[in-house]
């Protein structure tokens, strides 16, 4: 009789092990897309926000990188032309260089002969316009960073409400169903937080890049104003 009980015990252990292996295999076969889709309808706006953030980040990153490229010969050419009294040639150099700095200096060169304050004002206004072009749509990343986590929490809350509604209808608590339902609904929160963190990082990376471009533009514009203050110009 004890031998039979021992065999039954071994069979039960083997059965549990087989079920565990099958469950693990099922979990491994669950790919990322299927896992995300278990988060419910709230995943649709979260995925849209992720796509929007990626498009804005890479578009702005490429644009700012182009604007940050320094033309080492630009200031030297402008300086030599201005010192020689060839303002038209200096303006032509600015027009041939498709950069924010060149467009700023062109505004200043067009006002040479007027008071320095007027030239500084023209360069400053042109600089503000160029900076606004660089910062275009960057604030949307900040909005995404704030909205995405909240959407994730909303999705999780609605999921939890649905779980307890099902418990009420069933008239009892099934720990397996509740824990499994919570695991699925927490996907929305994790996804929202991930998108929010990525958007937050992208927002600050782009702002730091813009600040470096602004610093270089300010440095070169000060050098240009000092050039105009030199005797003989």
Number of domains: 2
Low-confidence stretches: 1-29
Mean pLDDT: 76
Which of globular, elongated, flat, extended, rod-shaped describes the shape? rod-shaped
Radius of gyration: 32 Å
Element-by-element helix/strand order: HHHHHHHHH
Count the beta strands: 0
Q: Give the N-terminus to C-terminus distance in angstroms.
A: 113 Å
Portion of residues in beta strands equals under 5%
| Main pleated sheet | none
**Helix content percent band:** over 70%
Summing up helix and strand content along with how strands pair, one would put the structural category as mainly alpha
Short description:
The protein has helices at 2-29, 32-37, 43-68, 72-83, 87-96, 100-109, 116-134, 138-170, 175-229. The protein is mainly α and 233 residues long. This is MotA/TolQ/ExbB proton channel.
């Amino acid at each position: 009789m004890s031998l039979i009980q021992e065999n039954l015990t071994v069979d039960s252990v083997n059965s549990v092990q087989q079920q565990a292996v099958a469950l693990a295999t099922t979990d491994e076969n669950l790919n990322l897309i299927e896992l995300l889709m278990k988060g419910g309808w709230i995943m649709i706006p979260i995925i849209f926000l992720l796509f929007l953030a990626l498009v804005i980040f890479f578009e702005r990153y490429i644009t700012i990188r182009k604007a940050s490229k320094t033309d080492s010969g630009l200031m030297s050419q402008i300086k030599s032309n201005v010192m020689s009294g060839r303002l038209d040639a200096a303006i032509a150099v600015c027009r041939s260089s498709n950069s924010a700095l060149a467009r700023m200096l062109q505004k200043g060169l067009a006002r040479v002969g007027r008071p320095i304050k007027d030239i500084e004002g023209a360069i400053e206004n042109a600089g503000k316009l160029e900076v606004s072009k660089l910062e275009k749509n960057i604030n949307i990343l900040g909005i995404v960073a704030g909205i995405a986590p909240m959407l994730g929490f909303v999705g999780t809350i609605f999921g939890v409400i649905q779980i307890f509604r099902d418990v009420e209808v069933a008239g009892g608590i099934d720990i397996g169903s509740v824990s499994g339902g919570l695991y699925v609904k927490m996907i929305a929160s994790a996804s929202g937080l991930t998108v929010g963190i990525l958007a937050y990082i992208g927002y600050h990376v782009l702002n730091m890049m813009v600040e470096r471009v602004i610093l270089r533009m300010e440095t070169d514009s000060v050098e240009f104003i000092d050039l105009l203050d030199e005797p003989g110009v």
